[in-house]
Target: DUF1232 domain-containing protein
Amino acid sequence: MGKIKAWAKNLKQQIFVLYLANKDERVPWYAKLFTACVVAYAFSPIDLIPDFIPIIGYLDDIIIVPIGIMFAIKMIPNEVILECEVKAEEMMKNGKPKNWIVGSLIIMLWSIIMLWVILKVYQLFN
Model:
């Protein structure tokens, strides 16, 4: 159980590293775009596979997020990662950052997507 907690803590710290790296001007635009998607998905309360579905509901948290983090870290220069790791460790000690604007945008985006899907399904059956 201790290994799982350490893995989860490391995963959370890597998400903060990506969050901080996304603000650095030394990171290429394509890496910023990919990193923003990974961080938004990790922080999003909505998953591709809902968690209430037994077993496979947690697959996106266990597989998709770590793979996205791995690819994002490979796109970012090493010196940026090292600097952001120090900042992320400090941030985790002081508490998570709260960005209500971005959180609201994520929820609004998911709501628009869900509304679009509902409308398409409704049109399909009528």
About this structure: Residues 43 and 76 are 20 Å apart (CA to CA). Helices lie at 2-21, 29-43, 59-75, 78-94, 100-125.
